[in-house]
Amino acid sequence: MKKYDCIIVGAGPAGIFCALELARLKKDIKILILEKGRDLRDRACPSREKKAPCFGCASCAVVSGWGGAGAFSDGKLAYSTEVGGMLGSYLSKSDFQEGIDYVHKVYLEFGAPEQLYGLANPDGIDMLQKKAALAGMRLVQAPIRHLGTGRTQDVLQQMQNYLVERGVEIKTDTAVGAIIINGGAVQGVLAADGEELAADYVVCAPGRYGSEWLGKEAERLGLEMAINPVDIGLRVELPAVVMEKITDLTYEGKFIFTSPTFEDRVRTFCMNPYGEVVMENTDGLVTVNGHTHADYRTENTNFALLVSKTFTEPFKQPIAYGKYVASLANMLAGGVMVQRLGDLMKGRRSTAERIDKGMVIPTLQEAIPGDLSLVFPYRHFLAILEMLKALDQVAPGVYSPHTLLYGVEVKFYSSRLDVSRALETRRRNLFVAGDGAGITRGLAQASLSGVVVGREIAKRAV
User: Fold this and answer.
1) What is the average pLDDT across 351-363?
2) Which of 75, 178, 205, 211 keeps 20 to 30 A from 414, CA to CA?
3) Rounded to an integer, what distance in angstroms lies between the CA atom of residue 450 and that of residue 437?
4) Which range marks the domain in which residue 52 is found?
5) Same domain as 443, residue 302
């Protein structure tokens, strides 16, 4: 049996930053990173290359592989402790802010751009916050460092090169089947191919793509979990000029809204100025996302509207629920569905002819025109429409008949494990980090969670 000091499951930002921190603090430590997906150089989406509907690959190159789902995202790093997850509940306020500062410095070291959006015009931000309040929304001030699709991959490749030079072993195309526990402490992992790998410390950072696996392992090991909200919604695409007053000030406007009818929480997520809408495949389920590229622009801006719903006893399967809703769109459209807001309000499905007559040219040409009202639960759909109307008061033109709606966008966050402030589970030396553990929801906090775990293991490792 091969023996390591530390095995890291998952090569997303949490896993990468854990390895970076360990390699810097303990130069002689033996680290193995296991990643289910492919190496960054080999990650390619045949659907995007051929401009065709999703091929349903067994391991989606868009969300799985070196760099995790963030590798092909537009790489937005929030310079704020208010957004991106619940890591603040484990750290002191000063440690949290110091950690966010540190993460940004590391990204800069590996080639991230210096510019921070959302700081240049505080008076303009203040005015925008007041407009949002009058519309019943809260605008969270969260400066953004934008890597951009393309540049994100360059940064991640530099990080990989750095780790390899320092002796970190990386195995891609290697799924983990189970975590090995003996006597209340972790002993290593069992790879999906049956190989046993021993380690003094194991860090599980499988990302959203591996959240379901981690949830099942936690249940098998008897680890306590709290059910996180499930975020279900759609992606909105409209002319970039409609959102310019927001995106020029903030780059990504983070609005939070409570729907008046059912009092559900709705938020904007992943705003992409001059970007494009893209598809993702999670275990055969095709969902929607968005990017902004570092080297070219489109004429559109897109963003997600997500409805957060926390379930209570006896229901304990929020991921399964999110997958069920998304599967309805797949059933009706064979993938991602798109609909004009005007068609939705008239109670009719969109057709290719109606889409062509609209003012907004879809950037995701593979999306199939249809009727999203057949997909979403009533209270989710009503909450989204109510927020679109509120956004229209801040950015006139949002609630336009030409606005395009794509579905479904779902964020699969695992049930949050019961962990210590160092993110250690009830099994000794078994740590978790990142989005897959239900602790974070974005690049910055996911990266910081890896740093937290790396520092703790470095203290313990002899």
Assistant:
1) 96
2) 75
3) 12
4) 2-112+147-225+417-460
5) no
